Structure formats: structure tokens, C-alpha cells
Amino acid sequence: MSEWFLIFYCGIITYLTRFSMIVILKKEMFNNKLREVLSYVPSAIFPAIIFPAIFLDEFGQFQLEDNPKILAAIIAMIIGILSRNIVATIFSGLASYWFLIFVV
């Protein structure tokens, strides 16, 4: 029971810390220059999250050979650029990755 309480407690703390920034910070507090700089944050964070998942194996070693994740990421990137649809990008990436793992 204590494990579930800990999971619930961590979720509440995470929610409150993120929600407090939304409530405390007002849009009027940001000038245009700061808004422009902050608009680049998601683009800078996303590759840092995705890179290890694609290029590192379960031991943390850099893996380029026989890595189906790289080809699936390239396919998803092409579909994303052509379709401009996030759902199509996600499904194409997943479908191509599963195809490469289970069929090829």
C-alpha cells in the first residue's frame, strides 16, 4: 500500500509544481524578446529526449549498425514533413519500426 501512496504523492507533487508556474506567471510578465527565446525551448529539448532512444542500445553504447530505430525515425520524419500531421508521423514511425522488427 505504501508504494501506491508514494506513486500518488509523487504525481500530486509533480502536478502542483507544474500547475503553480502556470498560475503564478502571467503572460504580461514576458516581453516579446523573452517569448521569442522561450519559443525555441521545445525544439531544443526534443532532440535531447529522442537521440538516446534511437541511437543508444540497452547498455548505453552508440549503435549505428543493424538499428531499425534509425530507419523508422527517418521514415517518420519524411512522413511528418510531407503530411504535417503528428498522428500520421507517430503511426508511421511505430508501424515502420514494428515492421522492421517483426517482419524483416
In total, how many domains does the architecture comprise? 2
What is the succession of H and E elements? HHHHH
**Residue share in β-strands:** under 5%
Assign the structural class, choosing from mainly alpha, mainly beta, alpha/beta, alpha+beta, or little secondary structure.
mainly alpha
Low-pLDDT runs: none
Q: Nearest-angstrom radius of gyration?
A: 19 Å
For the largest beta-sheet, the strand count, sense and barrel status come to:
none
Count of DSSP-assigned helices:
5
* Average pLDDT reading: 89
Q: Total number of β-strand segments?
A: 0
Proportion of helical residues: over 70%
Assembly status: single chain
What is the CA-CA span between the terminal residues? Answer: 44 Å
Shape: extended
Structure commentary:
This protein has 104 residues and is mostly helical. It has two domains: 1-39; 40-104, no CATH class. It has helices at 2-24, 32-38, 41-55, 68-83, 86-102.
Give the topology:
Layout (H helix, E strand, L loop, with lengths): L1 H23 L7 H7 L2 H15 L12 H16 L2 H17 L2
Features of the shown structure:
0% strand; 104 residues; mainly alpha; extended; 2 domains; 75% helix
Brief description of this entry?
With 104 residues, this protein is mainly α.
